[in-house]
Structure formats: structure tokens, C-alpha cells
Amino acid sequence: MEHIPATWLTEAALAAGRQGPGNLLRVVLVVMVVGCALAAWLLLRGYKRK
After folding, report:
1. Residue 29 lies in a domain
2. Quick check: is 8 in a domain?
3. What is the pLDDT of residues 3-27, one digit of tens each?
């Protein structure tokens, strides 16, 4: 197979389409956990003050 610079990008895009929602699901879960931790920190921070 010859190395043509433009074809590796199209092949990578086709391979990414076949992998399914795994990467997107991982990103959503990480953002959700970080968001929950930030919300808990913001809410619990107020109870410490008098």
C-alpha cells in the first residue's frame, strides 16, 4: 500500500466511526463526575462558614 498523505485521515475517520460510542460515553462520564464533585464542594463550602 502506498503512503498517500490524504488517505490516512479518511481511514482514521472511517475507523473511528466503526468503534461506537465508547469515547463519547467516557467523556460524558468524566465530565459528570467532575461536575458532581464541583457542585458538592460548592454546596458543602457554605455550611462550614458561620
Report:
1. yes
2. no
3. 666 676 677 667 766 777 788 889 9
